[in-house]
Amino acid sequence: MITIKGLHKSFGNLEVLKGIDATVEKGEVVCLIGASGSGKSTLLRCVNGLETYEQGAIDVHGRRVRAEDASIRDIRTRVTMVFQRFNLFPHRTALQNITEGPIFVKGEPRAEAEAHGMALLARMNLADKADAYPEQLSGGQQQRVAIARALAMRPEAILFDEPTSALDPELVGEVLAAMRALAEEGMTMLVVTHEMGFAREVADRVLFMSGGRIVEQGPAAELLSNPQHERTRDFLSRILSPM
Amino acid sequence: MNKFLQDAQDYLPILLQGAVTTAGIAFCALVIATLFGLVLALMRYSGIGVLSWTARSFVNIVRGIPILVQLFYIYFVLPDFGIDLTAFQAGAIGLGIAYSCYMAENFRAGLEAVDKGQVEAAQSIGMSWVLTMRRVVLPQAFRTVLPPYGNTMIMLLKDTSQASVITVAEITFQGKMLAASTFENMTVYTLVAGLYLAFSVPLFLLASYLERRFGKK
Ligand SMILES: Nc1ncnc2c1ncn2[C@@H]1O[C@H](COP(=O)(O)OP(=O)(O)O)[C@@H](O)[C@H]1O
Ligand SMILES: [Mg+2]
User: Fold this and answer.
1) What is the pLDDT at residue A242?
2) What range does the domain containing B190 cover?
3) Element holding A238 (H helix, E strand)
4) What values do phi and psi take at B170, rounded to 5?
5) Residue B98 near residue B70 (C-beta atoms within 8 A)
6) Which of A156-165, B2-11, B28-37 comes out lowest in average pLDDT?
7) Cα dihedral angle (B87, B90, B94, B100), rounded to 10 degrees?
8) Of all residues in chain A, what percent are helix, strand and coil, respectively (each to 5)?
9) What average pLDDT does range A47-52 have in this prediction?
10) Domains identified in chain B, total number
11) To 5 degrees, how large is the angle CA B177–CA B181–CA B187?
12) What is the CA(A84)–ligand 1 centre distance, in A?
């Protein structure tokens, strides 16, 4: 469903993505792991058309993703994104955050969008927070609202960029649980994460990135327990037993 | 003191007529400055080279010319090009354009203070640029822009006095005429100053309220 071929991306003289090939199939959960600075966010942002790229191709359902094309807006309603820092709209309530896209982008009738929004909040165990503003919510609650906002577009896939990295440790679990539930319902997901437990249990495949390249990929259990590449081993040993 | 009150009673009606004109010209100029300033700020914020460059050049040119000269230009030079404006129109348009540049700088600072993550979140659910501005960026910029907006409004109000040079019959103009015919400079200009304060003190209070209510926490 998402196909990335020979993707190159530079910021000025700094080449950040050095030829990425990857696919995400419908219904698949793919986790993208790797050290900080290896280019994971940049890759995700290219897929969402938030960054331009110089070389290669990204296709969603055979439609070319290009940040500068008008078609990008339609593609974004099909592949939405959840950010590390939530990026909820602070001047709107939880429910308004969720209905903003359906009402103003897709033109859904307000009543329908609100009913769907309330259902999504209930799914995120936040039914009682519909009228709360983001600043009144904990980080974990905000991120679950953000997931509901991404879901409200009825997307075919969701990109997650380190969705739990900005959270206090005790709030990580509730967000991962929500994501796991999504995965079980068959949502296509591409997830940048440092949560190896989540990757092992939920991901179908894991991609390991280092220095702008995908160094190794494979089924989650296999790659995480029996990494082939030295850099993968290094990374995993550092992240699993820090210090 | 008695004489002052006596004279004041005679002069006040004329000066109040001027005050109405001052309020009118300030209001019209404020509307022009706000709308046009917003357009200039959005042009710069758009990140589109031509638009941004055009807006920046315009702001720098206008800010580099004294308002007085701009008013002369609009009132005395434009008629040579077939654009005939009344003194009031020329004053409102001149002040409006001059202040649109100050407003544009205020607005731009407010737009840029909005977290870039907000724009990305809006885009990630498929919002167009216009929709992103309208629903996400402008409502947030609004809060940060209010306090400086209030201050610029006060400056604009006081600068309406410059329109007296192109014969707009606002407070200062009326005061000058009165003073010239009565020689009661002290009485007349004390009243003139008092009238300006009567306008600007409420605006100061409003601005400081906005500062407290919406300013940086
Ligand atoms: N907007 C940008 N301008 C310049 N360099 C950037 C920008 N965004 C990211 N980079 C650089 O690109 C590299 C990869 O960043 P990123 O994709 O955020 O890595 P990761 O998400 O894996 O930590 C880093 O060296 C980072 O400094
Ligand atoms: Mg990152």
Assistant:
1) 61
2) 2-214
3) helix A230-240
4) -90, -170
5) yes
6) B2-11
7) 120
8) 40, 25, 35
9) 94
10) 1
11) 80
12) 14
- State in Å: Cα A15 to ligand 1 middle: 10
Give contacts of B126 with chain A, Cβ < 8 Å: 73-74, 76-77, 101, 105-106, 153
Please write the tens of the pLDDT for every residue from A160-191: 999 999 999 999 999 999 999 999 999 999 99
Tens of pLDDT, residues A198-231? 999 999 999 999 999 999 999 998 999 888 889 9
User: Over the stretch B119-133, which tens digit does the pLDDT of each residue have?
Assistant: 999 999 999 999 999
Transcribe B63-110 into DSSP letters.
HTS-HHHHHHIIIIIGGGGT----HHHHHHHHHHHHHHHHHHHHHHHH
Identify which of A13, A16, A160 to mutate to test ligand 1's pocket (most ligand atoms within 8 A of the CB). Answer: A16
Pick the CATH number of A2-240 from 3.90.1150.10, 3.30.450.40, 3.40.50.300, 3.40.50.970: 3.40.50.300
pTM, two decimal places: 0.86
Mean pLDDT of B47-65: 93
**Going by C-beta distance under 8 Å and a sequence separation of 6 or more, which residues neighbour residue A4?**
A20, A21, A22, A23, A43, A47, A56, A57, A58
User: Domain residue spans in chain A?
Assistant: 2-240
Q: Which residues have C-beta atoms less than 6 Å from ligand 1?
A: A 11, 14, 16, 34, 36-42
Q: Which two tokens stand for residue A206?
A: 């894991």
CATH number for the domain that contains residue B155:
1.10.3720.10
Q: Which residues from B are below 8 Å from A73, CB to CB?
A: 126-128
- pLDDT for position B215: 64
Residue type, A221: A
By the CB < 8 Å criterion, does B123 face chain A?
yes
A50 touches chain B (CB under 8 A): yes
Is the confidence metric ipTM above 0.85 for this complex?
yes
Residues in chain B closer than 8 A to A85 (CB atoms): 117
